[in-house]
Write a structure and sequence with these properties.
Elements (H helix, E strand, L loop, with lengths): L2 E9 L3 H12 L4 E4 L15 E2 L12 H7 L8 E3 L5 H12 L3 H28 L11 E5 L2 H16 L5 E4 H7 L9 E5 L3 E2 L2 H14 L3 E3 L4 E7 L2 E7 L2 E10 L5 H5 L8 E11 L10 E3 L4 E6 L2 E10 L8 H14 L8 E12 L5 E4 L6 E5 L5 H16 L19
Parallel strand pairs: 1-2, 1-12, 2-9, 4-16, 5-14, 12-19
Antiparallel strand pairs: 3-8, 5-7, 6-7, 10-11, 11-12, 13-16, 13-17, 14-15, 15-16, 18-19
Helix pairs in contact: 1-7, 1-10, 4-10
Amino acid sequence: MNRRQSDVLILGGGAVGLACALYLLRAGRSVTVIERGRAGGATSHGNCGTITPSHAVPLAAPGVLADGLRWMLKKDAPLRIAPRADFALFEWLLQFARRCNARECRRVTSIKTPLLLRARSELEELVRGENLDCEFHAAGTMNVYRDARAFEKSQASVQSAAEFGIAVETLDGAACRLREPALNDSIVGGHFHPGDAQLRPERYCAELVRAIVASGGEIRESTTISGFRTAGDRVESVVTDCGEFTGREIVFALGAWSPQLARQLDLRIPIQPGKGYSITYTRPARYPRIPLSLKERAVCVTAWDSGYRLGSTMEFSGYDDSLNRTRLDALKRGAAEYLIEPEGPCVVEEWYGWRPMTYDDLPILGRTASLKNLVLATGHGMLGITMSAITGRLIAELVNGASPSLDLAPFSPARFNI
């Protein structure tokens, strides 16, 4: 049987898988990446590209699930749970609900903060060290509010993140507009996070591909995984429509598709696909210089030299592959409430992608118990770009038997009995 062999086989060519490949190549391993589409062309392609240690507070915060249930029938709600018979989603939501309390929120924030702070510095070091031409800019980000009650309520989560080391400046409406003149007069206040940054995600992934190929790595695009062959406690080969591939180590970086393929290995990975949307434009004349989060509408706004993007929202609708016009229109309506010039002159792309959401809002990093050569690098939620470089470093350290830069215990697959 003809099998293509490499030292490390990485399944998934998004930002996380590509970063893992580059760090492993730097460590002297031979690497092949298998991607069913174009490398970086799925979830890593159309997000807003913000690098956000400021997002240390988990999605499972007090009151979030109640909002989701209240908005269940509202098709343009910022957080929408599409009503359907889905046992896996019900089980996920039950676990999520158990974590929507102040104690658990604080615990997860204390775990995420050091990971995200290290992720921010690691990503900039990678961009600078590899000369990645991806429009990286360390301008911070700003969360802005139009509703005084929502702004007041936000203080608790901001203070919680600040307590663990996230830098923040709280501003009134006038100070927000002074800091970012693209905002209109409706803004009542906001929080500026100077430690955040931005890049253009599709450029970042394209540059990772360039660096991988230049370092001798192989990327197999348009290659669909159909199954696995195992022998004892090891994955012997990965079966694809382009033949079989083998590796001494297998890195599972399949994002939102992780649960589907993991079932073929008798593994249950508790990830739900959280669908997000974006619209990319040519840049308007009065564009924001600072990436913005328009909080009541959950819309993210990012501008680069090469374009302008409205994005975000969260929809739990399974693997529905339709481009929901209602949710795209909600991005435009939301932006119009906050910005003087909310849209660019020309639409370049309308997009959706599935984020890999764990119910505890922490990534899954580490070896599985049953398959000794299988390493998971998935479940990064809305922060895959942010955590890509630190994940690459941690996975390379793990595969090479080095001491990890951060304690991996809180992110271990063992917490889900995997």
